[in-house]
Amino acid sequence: MENTWSDLAGHAPAGPLRDAIEWVAAAVDAPGPLSPALVDDRMRLNVFRGRQALARLEELRRLRKPFRNVEVEAASPNAADVRFLTADDLHVRVHWEVWEREPRHLRVLRLDWIGPEAIPLTDWEQVPDLLAHYRVPALSVAWTDGAGEPTARAWGADPDTRFAACSIAKPLTAVAVLALVHRGVLDLDEDVNDRLTSWRVPAAGSWQPRVTLRGLLSHSAGLPIYYGMGHEADERNYSVRELLEGRDPTYRPVRVELLPGLLAVYSNAGYAIIQQLVEDVTGAPLATVIEQLVLEPLGMTNSLMATAPPPSLGGRMAVGHDQFGEPLPWIVVPSVGYGGLFTTAADLCRFAAGLQRAAAGLPEAILPRELVHEMLTPVVNPCVGLGVMLSTSGRRRFSHRGGLPGWAAALTATVEPGPAVAVLVNRDGDSELFWSAMTLGAIEAAGEDLFVTQKTLTQATTRAIGVTPRPQPAPGAVLPDGAEGTYRLRPGYELTVAGMAVTIPGQEPIPLLGGEDGRFTLEGLATTLEFTRAGGAVLRQGPEEWRLMSDQRPGRCGSDGTSGVR
Length: 566
What we know:
566 residues, alpha+beta, Beta-lactamase, 3 domains, 24% helix, globular
């Protein structure tokens, strides 16, 4: 079947996703230049608005119609991937997110990939040709087998050219935090509100969440999906504190909205809070703390933390490009803690080697062995540690990815001293060349692919899209007979119902509201609890459902209604 943009909407299920696709189709198919009036606070593309959103629409306009081989994969009622081929055989993947009931964050479109048919990279000699094939301006890769300095190669740039590594800033932030824990400055399990001075995690109604560094570092503190991207350099930009307070009209104020400790949901907001905490406690910018505690000790002389690349880098800094190879303006990242790393592939390998030495308990390591053990131990999700993603099979490995418009980065290494590989590109979206280079570099270093999957984190995060607290019902109903008791969601995480409140590990009792329809809302959260006649309960958070029984292990129902055990 051949399609135009308007036809694509017919492939999506009726509802908010189809509405969003129809909106984009009308904008892209309209004749004449795009007007800034098309984009307002209700419509966001690529997590952006204003000029950046219009630029994404212009990219979509450049795709040649008719489209064919259209596939729509709905991951949840609020998220879907649309794939198709253009008239000139470009493969397109577009990710759609629809955020309902949130006036500042209704629709997001992410242009994941536009590119030709995949050609596997099996030899580095292919790289120059594949750069042109995939429209990738520059590729930088480094690997090490653990002996000596990393091997670094680059095409379209020098090995010492800096690239934006984006979210790979998170592992560096985690190491700096753990270094402060080692010095007694911070504690992984204390309430961050006990140390924050310039901003505090707000209450959710009458309930005050208890948020810890362990929860923030592992994305399990109950914070919502939060991009926290900035704006172009000549636009109004906001500080970390202003983002937390909701001063940027693009984002709502940061607060706990999901049941803490239930799931790991990837959120930049947690690392914004970490940055504010470190700066409140130390009195120094987080960038300076990371430089002193991480970059300098590990010899990462070609790395720096900043919200934007300093002009002094000049030609030593690469330029990000869109998927058609056109240069993109830099987006100011408000928090260095979650996205402000500029580095080289070799320096990323040096960072990995530093963690490997610490994990082995070698002398003069950057952290004590026991703290690296904390970092590399899953917290809630089996593939999420403190600031890193973890392997769940095969050799023990840690990794992290990073991405911004115009950039993609990845780092993977074994836990024991030895192999590590890093790849950086200055092209928007994940090109096949990017991942092929990651695989080939790992084979050079270890003789095998070291990729670390994070599907369980991705799935939990995708299902949380659009999950925001609804208008809170008034107290009034009473619990049904037999509702009080303890329900186990997983080993070590129990939910106790007593009176008109729920208690979970590490938190004060959370009041139960409503209940007239048999469904109770946990105050301030996007979480409900419904008690069944069989003496069980159903916990719901967005499309996720957990069927709970106090006398047996609970099952979990996904959005398709199938039962299983998390």
